[in-house]
Amino acid sequence: MSTICGGLFTSHVPGIGKAIAQNLQQDPYWKPFFDGFAPVHQWLAQEQPDVAVVFYNDHGLNFFLDAMPTFAIGAAAQYRHEDEGWGIAFQRPFEGAPNLSWHIIEQVVAAEFDPVSCQSMMVDHAVAVPFELCWPGSDAFPTRLVPIAINTVQHPLPSPKRCWDLGRAVGRAIASWGGDEKVVVMGTGGLSHQLEGERAGHINVDYDKFCLRNLAPDPQALLQHDTLDIVELAGSQGVEILNWIAARGALNGSGTGSVKELASNYHVPISNTAAATVLLQHSDRVNA
Ligand code: DHB
Ligand code: FE
């Protein structure tokens, strides 16, 4: 039986990727953000998950406005990141876990979701930056990838409830997988930010703190705002919190579903974003 050992939630600002490439982790601007990863590194070294199931949004690298799936699940043996114009030069390939991917796809379709299944897929900074943050270094990543893309870009976007339910179905699928992989689920993006228009630079500390406060003990509190409410509250890209909601749903859908918060970090701003990192231990592992 596969188990979910925990959940990792982090912003995916491309500038973080450039800071990693330039070794700026101790620079005064970056240090408060990177310091939030010390407990994450410690935990990952201890848990050594085999697979990361990552809920993220593609920003135009693999999917563009001409054909934008609401949900897409990778089922490739390998994924790669390409130059998106942000100037981040990540070289390491991402090894896939296609058997687990297909099991997840089968189970979520049986649960009446309609994802696009992708046997070929590029992953953008929303996967690459979190992977580099979690597993710094130059060797191959020790953890394989199942990418799950949620449309947070082209309206209409899915509702928070729909993302929560998708996440729960993915969590149940992982729990029913016959393999012995240890899985970490990840939600990337957020917190509040808006990159364009009159409200460019918009940050909402109150809403961010509400999300951080409720993520572990009462994640369904985050479902009280609909998608357009979240755009209003958190900015047009702050709606990336949908990826966090889905990942938290996966923890809820698997095993006992209860979690313990091991670390939480919030720092404003990184680039135009209220940056946050949260680490939740899944209770099946706490009790193991
Ligand atoms: C920024 C944040 C994002 O989530 C993103 O996808 C691109 C840029 C930023 O704050 O610069
Ligand atoms: Fe983003």
CATH-defined superfamily: LigB-like
Separation of termini?
14 Å
Q: Percent of residues in beta strands?
A: 15-25%
Report mean pLDDT, rounded to a whole number: 96
Main β-sheet, spatial strand arrangement: 6-3-7-2-8-1-10-9
Q: How helix-rich are the residues, as a percent range?
A: 25-40%
User: What structural category arises from helix and sheet content?
Assistant: alpha/beta
What characterizes the major β-sheet? 8 strands, mixed
Question: How many individual β-strands?
Answer: 10
- Under the CATH scheme, the architecture is 3-Layer(aba) Sandwich
- The low-pLDDT segments are none
Envelope shape: globular
CATH class: Alpha Beta
How large is the count of helical segments? 10
Ligand types: 3,4-dihydroxybenzoic acid, fe (iii) ion
How many structural domains? 1
Task: Describe the structure in brief.
With 288 residues, the protein is of the alpha/beta class.
Supply the key terms.
288 residues, alpha/beta, Protocatechuate 4,5-dioxygenase, Chain B, eight-stranded mixed β-sheet, globular
Question: Can you give a write-up of this model?
Answer:
With 288 residues, this protein is an alpha/beta fold. It has one domain: Protocatechuate 4,5-dioxygenase, Chain B. It has 10 helices and 10 strands. The protein has helices spanning 14-21, 31-34, 38-47, 98-110, 125-134, 160-176, 205-215, 227-234, 241-253, 283-287; strands spanning 3-10, 51-56, 71-74, 78-79, 94-95, 116-118, 144-150, 182-188, 259-270, 273-282. The strands form 2 sheets. The protein has an 8-stranded mixed beta sheet with strand order 6-3-7-2-8-1-10-9, sandwiched between helices. A two-stranded antiparallel sheet has the order 4-5. Strand 9 (259-270) and strand 10 (273-282) form a beta hairpin. Helix 1 crosses helix 5. The radius of gyration is 17 Å and the shape is globular. The chain starts with a strand and ends with a helix. The relative contact order is 0.24. The structure holds 3,4-dihydroxybenzoic acid and fe (iii) ion. 3,4-dihydroxybenzoic acid (DHB) binds next to helix 1.
